[in-house]
Amino acid sequence: MTVLDENINAIQRRQLRHWKIHFRRIGGEVGRYGMKDRDEIIPLLHSLRHVTFFTRDHDFYHPWLRHPNYCLVYLEVKPDEAALFIRRFLRHPHLSTQAQRMGKVVRVHHEGISFWQVRVDKQQKVAW
Known about the structure:
Elements: E1 2-4, H1 10-18, E2 24-25, H2 37-47, E3 51-55, E4 70-75, H3 82-91, H4 98-101, E5 104-109, E6 112-117, E7 120-126
Parallel strand pairs: 1-2, 1-3, 3-4, 4-5
Antiparallel strand pairs: 5-6, 6-7
Helix pairs in contact: 1-3
C-alpha cells in the first residue's frame, strides 16, 4: 500500500492518479486530518501492513525510524516535483517491488536516493 502525507498537494495527487499510481492519503483514506508527524503517523504505519509512506517532511529521515514492515520516503524536492519523483522512485530497479522497499528510511533527491536499511548500520546510496 502506498500512503501520501497531507503535505503532498492536490495537483500532485491528480498527476499520480493520471499515471494510474494508486495511493491512500493521510486524513482522507487513512488516519485522520491533522495527525502529528512522527508521534501519530509512525504508530499508524505500525498498524498497517507493508506500507510505503511518502512525505515532504525531513523529520521522517532518521535511521532509528527503520522498521521491517514499512518504508518511509522523504521527498527532498520542490512541492511541484513530488509526483514525478514518487513515480521515479516506484520504478527504480532497486526499489520497484514492495519487498525491496520494506525496512528502509529513504531520502529522494535530484542526485539520487539515499537510505537507511534495517540491520545495516551504514547509509547507502543509489543513483537514478
